[in-house]
Amino acid sequence: EHQWSPVRSTQCYDRSERYLFWNEPLTIALLTLMSITISLTCLTAALFLKNLETPLVQASGGKLNLFALFTLMLLCLSCCLYVGKPSNNLCMIQQVVYALCLNGCFSTFFIKSLEITLVTEFPRCAPTFLHWVTQRRAWLLVALCLLTECLFCFCYLHLGPDYLVSDYKSLPTEVLLVCNTESWFAFGLMHGYNGCLAFVCFLCTFMVQTSGKKYNIARGITFAILIYFIIWIFFIAIFATLKTVLRSVTQIGTILTTSLGILGTYYIPKCYIILLKP
Fold this sequence. Notes:
This is Taste receptor type 1 member 3. The chain crosses the membrane at residues 28-52, 64-84, 138-159, 184-208, 220-242, 248-268. Keywords: Glycoprotein, Membrane, Receptor, Transmembrane, Transmembrane helix. This protein is mostly helical. The chain is built from nine helices and five strands. The protein has helices at 25-50, 55-60, 63-77, 88-121, 126-129, 135-159, 184-205, 217-239, 246-276; strands spanning 3-4, 13-14, 16-18, 163-167, 174-180. It has a three-stranded mixed sheet. Strands 1-2 form a two-stranded antiparallel ribbon. The protein is elongated.
């Protein structure tokens, strides 16, 4: 099975391995987009750090923004895990890194969403509970969200992580090396938690109204989560059916579009205000 023969030939040739190579034009284009996204994330983080004490940055989450941008940068860097020759360990790490980095960003959105809900929907209870979602205790909630995701990642690794498959049927002259999902239940458990966090953020923010002259921080979270859901609908449909190198391309594309969506809807508008309308 590791060899092939041309039609009407008596000679056999060894199959070459097929995966997403570093020097492919498509890979170079994706890595260029990754570099641009990381640069935007770093510039945004630097701007937020410089204006950390301003009312807008403080209202947006203060230092939690820097943590969220750091996890977004790590998420973009994880694109490199999908390029090159895969292995069992690499297949296993890919999904775990994606889930943890995205959870780090969504946990900060979750805290901000709870704060917005308390202030707008439950103003009488706000003074009692606001200290749980602001300042130092907010970091405790972030740690709790990450710890919960770590437990789901452990379940994923225990129940059935992704593993390397050598596919001899899809291509006539090559052996396709692709990561295959062993347990869809474990996969859904790990990524479903992030989906639940995102859904709670969406529920907490999409009904918040402010007057025309006030900046609506909740709207940025709403649009970021909407983009995440739309991307994931397409991702699941494609990821479950593809068994080619395009599977890796799909995962890289999902990471980059999610990161750019979050940057473009939540962080870039704030940069615009900081720079041009302080």
